[in-house]
Design brief:
single chain; alpha+beta; HIT family, subunit A; 5 strands; about 20% helix; binds adenosine monophosphate
Length: about 110
């Protein structure tokens, strides 16, 4: 999608601090981190929101979690713990309409989330 900021990062048109990638998934540090570790894990395929997923995307979304698991290990936070969050649409606070899994770690997390 030409007007999608995350598609531009995938294309290399906008810089990002990339921590992991494979054929299907890209992960980079959030510009406005909400925890000592805050990484966004995104599919290279443009899918706007969870609502736009189809059954054919199920394996791809599973790969986001496998990437998050690997990044947590490489960043040394897997054993202490981490949170993954995916916001969907306005009330959840989604601001970028290209599905992304937030990986947050390095501090105690509150529950329920705000
Ligand atoms: P959400 O509010 O769930 O849609 O999350 C969007 C996230 O993308 C926010 O945490 C932003 O700080 C982050 N973000 C927006 N633009 C960029 C960018 N160019 N590079 C890295 N993170 C970004």
């Amino acid at each position: 999608m030409s007007d999608c900021i995350f598609c531009k990062i995938i294309a290399g048109d906008i810089p990002a601090d990339i921590v992991y990638q494979n054929d299907d998934v890209l992960a980079f540090r959030d510009l406005n981190p909400q925890a000592p570790l805050h990484v966004l894990v995104i599919p290279k395929k443009h899918i706007a929101t969870i609502n736009d997923m189809t059954a054919t995307d199920a394996e791809l979304v599973g790969k986001l979690y496998l990437a998050a698991q690997q990044i947590a290990r490489q960043e040394g936070v897997a054993d202490d713990g981490y949170r993954t969050v995916m916001n969907c649409n306005e009330l959840a606070g989604q601001t970028v309409f290209h599905m992304h899994l937030h990986l947050l770690a390095g501090r105690a997390m509150n529950w329920p989330p705000g």
